[in-house]
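From the thread on structure requests for the teaching lab: each student submitted one protein with a one-line request. Submission from student K.M.:

"Model VOC family protein from Bosea caraganae, tokens only."
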Amino acid sequence: MAFGPNPPSLQPHLCVKGGIEAIAFYEKAFGAECTFKQMAEDGARVMHANLAVFGGEIMLHDDFPEFGGDVRPPHGHGGASVALNVNLPSPADVDAAIARAEAAGGTVFMPAGDVFWGARYGRLTDPFGHVWAFNAPLAKA
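Reply posted by the TA:
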């Protein structure tokens, strides 16, 4: 695995069905950069990938049910069990991030709005079943 010089202490590792397509979606929707990719022997599935995104890093791999994996993709298993929360600098960034991800194929289920904790916040599901939440503090009066 290739990590940056200072890997984050907590790194989400996403399991997807369609790793190549997922990498392309995250690049288009979130401006991610694939910093490492190792394909499986079948040449069709991603064994492991690292993506630099939103100032952090996520890992990603295709589903490998033949290995009896304990991490499976959200689709077909009742949905995601966590949301990936992205803190952004400004409320306008929340709207822009959600619009960009929706244009790339994400499904918005909580449009960006001002919420009671003093933030601009919205959520969407990516085409691979993972939930992304975007948050930015509202300007103080």
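TA comment: The mean pLDDT is 91. The first strand starts at residue 13 and ends at 16.
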